[in-house]
UniProtKB/TrEMBL annotation, chains A, B:
<keyword id="KW-0805">Transcription regulation</keyword>
<dbReference type="InterPro" id="IPR000843">
    <property type="entry name" value="HTH_LacI"/>
</dbReference>
<dbReference type="InterPro" id="IPR010982">
    <property type="entry name" value="Lambda_DNA-bd_dom_sf"/>
</dbReference>
<dbReference type="GO" id="GO:0003700">
    <property type="term" value="F:DNA-binding transcription factor activity"/>
</dbReference>
<dbReference type="InterPro" id="IPR046335">
    <property type="entry name" value="LacI/GalR-like_sensor"/>
</dbReference>
<dbReference type="Pfam" id="PF13377">
    <property type="entry name" value="Peripla_BP_3"/>
</dbReference>
<keyword id="KW-0238">DNA-binding</keyword>
<dbReference type="Pfam" id="PF00356">
    <property type="entry name" value="LacI"/>
</dbReference>
<dbReference type="GO" id="GO:0000976">
    <property type="term" value="F:transcription cis-regulatory region binding"/>
</dbReference>
<protein>
    <submittedName>
        <fullName>LacI family transcriptional regulator</fullName>
    </submittedName>
</protein>
<dbReference type="InterPro" id="IPR028082">
    <property type="entry name" value="Peripla_BP_I"/>
</dbReference>
<feature type="domain" description="HTH lacI-type">
    <location>
        <begin position="4"/>
        <end position="58"/>
    </location>
</feature>
<keyword id="KW-0804">Transcription</keyword>
Length: 341, 341
DNA sequence: CCACAGGGCTACAACGTTGTAACAGCCTCG
DNA sequence: CGAGGCTGTTACAACGTTGTAGCCCTGTGG
């Protein structure tokens, strides 16, 4: 019941343990005839290598951790699925953690303390900052996804947030909107991601000669539907409300559309809406959502490759910054002919 | 860097390895004074037990696998988050797998072959059937979530699908709908879950003396938005289209509402819609969705407890069937005053 | 004063794997 | 004919932990 061991296979095939080990891993020189005999014995006994023993011996478990602030947020669920897929094609397994955005928890995971058997960590940080991470003792290979700060000493995988935000804004300007609000600016301590998106937004406004009204950038604590709806209500209470909103996540956009709907506004006629993330539901919302689509598959593959590279080609190489692609998907919420992506 | 071992702590504290091991696990008899000395050494060296060595020795890894058909489906993402939380409070970790609904993959995972270091498996099956599972060799403790068939030899965690479907249907009848369609019936090989929901639906119709029109139950292959939209279009092409739809998932309902919208229908005025799953986005859709809400937290806790129970109190107890609670959440899509849940 | 209990601690052997070193046997070449 | 080089194989010692058995004390009761 408890599974055959190398020893059992070896006895059955009439060879030494080490020869079986070599066959299993395709290493060392083994005569074709013995190889076949061993493979036969393996099949008969249904041998499966013991991962723990292997890990104990080699120091490799083949497991990498993926830590996200909130697995139920569709963006992270979709990203997680891509990471799992990318890891599978590279022969390793993913252990998902849900940090809840708690800095202490993120730090614990970044240090590899969550489970000492993991080989590396992919972390999507939220509250973490560089001072906390500066002296992390245990040096587990760490890759940050869509990071919060440039200063954290680790590899980074991200998209060109500034360019993406600029493109989204340009699209709104092109369809004639001039009072463009932004939802997604935190009240304090803006992440690098947010700073870049604001920068792209302002660049586009400036290039078009459109003045920026700070009252059109209400503060938002999280990237949730509830916060999007709340921010939208603030905007709609202005004496001179916006004719477009650029939301830094699709969930914010979903909440904003909900609030606009309750306020009796039509999207896109009265209010154009652009999101960010391209989560699946945005294709099916009513109206479907124009959004910036980061290439999640590429992000996942870059991240998994980066962490595996650091695990094998070991740790001291300089930290890299890897950029994945993105696209602006134009749908109904900005009033173009519905393309039904 | 590579982490301290029991041996290092032992040398530092001037005791034997075994004494340190005893202190770490709070077992055996250790004098208070040595205990303090050991704890001090542990803190100084930042000792963390090596999970693999422990697993190799004890046969327990503290890791359970959760396999779902599709992690990007919000229901499964939300369920996964609950399972992770439940496992954390019970001191174990969760490894998430994405089977894609592939029966072969599900079988592999049900047999514990995905990774031999896992202690137990929570599986949400889609394609698996009992004949495949009958002679699974390796006996990893297995718990099925919302299963496909009663006959599979394992513990089951589910909700009362029949009662839930009946309640949803009764609600539609109560608000005056008479031509009620159902979306979610597969073209063949209906799962136990689907069978029960159909049963609850028909029971309610029968009790109200409303005749059942089989043309109002189009076939659907998957529980996706696209399938929901396609099924809805079929229904809208009928000469006598429905005035209500009961969808077996919120995603189906989302697709159905999308199709209804494109067809120029108003929800709930022209068409009332009820979903199943209570995923977060259903609170924010336009209109918000009336839906059956399974108690996901309870499901997760029952499942984790069940698998842990089987791991420790070992395997041969008779298989149990555990039922979690559910609720019907009435929102805008069935026309009541919007309660903004 | 001896036997014995039991508290507090330690030595040793596993768990299943892999890296290292080495060993036969054969062939080739000088 | 001996040195050297391959090829295929094996013995052995780790990796870090925990279960078992047993040790040395000190204190107590006969």
């Amino acid at each position: 019941m408890a599974g055959a061991r190398l020893k059992d296979v070896a006895e059955r095939a009439g060879v030494s343990i080490k020869t079986v080990s070599n066959v299993v891993r395709g290493e060392g020189r083994v005569a074709e005839q013995t190889r076949r005999r061993v493979l036969h014995a393996i099949a008969e006994l249904d041998y499966q290598p013991n991962a723990s023993a292997r890990h104990l011996r080699t120091g490799r478990s083949g497991i990498i951790a993926l830590a996200v602030p909130e697995l139920v947020a569709p963006y992270f669920a979709e990203l997680a699925a891509e990471v799992i897929a990318a890891a599978k094609t590279r022969g390793c397994t993913v252990l998902i953690e849900d940090t809840g955005g708690d800095p202490a928890e993120e730090l614990r995971i970044a240090c590899g303390l969550s489970d000492p058997l993991i080989d590396g960590v992919l972390l999507s940080p939220l509250g973490l900052d560089e001072t906390m991470l500066a002296n992390r003792g245990r040096r587990v290979p760490l890759v940050l996804l869509g990071e919060q700060s440039y200063e954290i000493p680790a590899d980074h995988v991200l998209i060109d947030n500034s360019a993406a935000a600029r493109e989204a804004t340009e699209h709104l300007l092109r369809i004639g909107r001039r009072r463009i609000a932004v939802i997604g600016q935190p009240p304090e301590r803006a992440h690098a991601t947010t700073v870049q998106r604001m920068h792209g937004f302002l660049t586009a406004l400036h290039a078009a000669g459109v003045p920026h009204d700070p009252r059109l950038v209400p503060h938002t604590r999280e990237f949730t539907r509830a916060d999007g709806a709340a921010a939208m209500r603030v905007l709609l209470a202005l004496e001179d409300p916006p004719d477009a909103v650029f939301c830094f996540s699709d969930l914010l956009a979903s909440g904003a559309m909900r609030a606009a709907h309750e306020h009796g506004l039509r999207v896109p006629e009265d209010l154009a809406v652009v999101g960010f993330d391209d989560i699946q539901e945005s294709r099916y919302s009513v109206p479907s959502l124009t959004t910036v689509s980061p290439d999640k598959q590429e992000i996942a593959e870059l991240a998994v490759d980066a962490v595996l590279h650091r695990i094998t080609n070991d740790a001291e190489a300089p930290h890299r910054r890897l950029t994945a692609g993105h696209d602006l998907l134009v749908r109904e919420s900005t009033g173009t002919e519905a393309p039904r992506t």
